[in-house]
């Protein structure tokens, strides 16, 4: 079935499939790039900012520790007031970070861990308030006892909750990064697979089309060479209905026609030979001329008679030469060729006349020679 497709259709099918695969490759590439862009966006716009916010809470814990330590070291009114302002600033920043995390955290696990952070922060910030009041009241020993006791436990609980949240957000960011790598790797693999398929299909299509064209053309070339060398016996078989198959079919028909024509010509030549031999051996004087009245045949009887009369004929026709009559125009026998040419040109039936030349009288009987279709092809003269 495929062998009967036209060459143009074959090319269209082969390379159409290649183009289709390339289009699929482009579609997959765009889809994978879109997925990769989404994964990167999730990392940069969601996971990474939340991880940074959680780390800010961790930094704020360190800042609060430093402020609380400074209150114990120097509890003068001026330093205590400055330390309180710094602590308020850090706590305000921590609350803002917590509020932002509350807004952006969407997973159930993230919300649970953030709730633990917020709960621990309330206890820790409450202990900090008590600590600052004790330091402001000059009760340094009570403040240190609170710092190393209840506030330490609240601080540790807050630390642990923040670290748990930081760890969770870091794991979420790593997971998003892993998914982005998987999307990238999967997309690259699909593009490579489809590209390889397109390359293989292009090679197969090119090979298929090339062979389907060149092989029949080689057969046609061999057949044409055999025909040109005169060998008309080879078999030419068309195995398809495409242009090359039509070429082989045409060559086969041409070979058959040439063989038939040669056989017909051979039969005609044999018949002509038999007829010539017969005319050469009859007692009548026979001459044949073509449509232009050029002599193309003299039988032996006429040739012998003209040789005998050649010297007499030359008295009136000095250039007359029997040996050169073949190919000579019949006008050579007439002193007024135009008159005789007019008679013979319109000849449609038997014409009889007497030709006097060189003291001899030659009785002429002329008949038109027609082909099978009735077309005039020459004149026979006795």
Description:
The protein is an alpha+beta fold and 382 residues long. 72% of the residues lie in helices and 8% in strands. It has 8 helices and 5 strands. It has a 5-stranded antiparallel β-sheet with strand order 2-1-5-4-3. A hairpin with a 5-residue loop joins strand 4 and strand 5. Helix 1 (7-73) packs antiparallel against helix 5 (150-228), helix 4 (140-148) runs parallel beside helix 5 and helix 5 runs parallel beside helix 6 (243-280). The radius of gyration is 59 Å and the shape is rod-shaped. The two termini are 67 Å apart. The mean pLDDT is 78.
SSE sequence, one letter per element: HHHHHHEEHHEEE
Largest sheet at a glance? 5 strands, antiparallel
Strand content: 5-15%
Helix share, percent: over 70%
Structural class based on helices, strands and sheet pairing:
alpha+beta
Short characterization:
With 382 residues, the chain is an alpha+beta fold. Helix content is 72%, strand content 8%. A five-stranded antiparallel sheet has the order 2-1-5-4-3.
Topology:
Layout: H1 7-73, H2 77-104, H3 108-136, H4 140-148, H5 150-228, H6 243-280, E1 287-290, E2 295-298, H7 300-316, H8 337-345, E3 351-357, E4 360-370, E5 376-381
Antiparallel strand pairs: 1-2, 1-5, 3-4, 4-5
Helix pairs in contact: 1-2, 1-5, 2-3, 3-4, 3-5, 4-5, 5-6
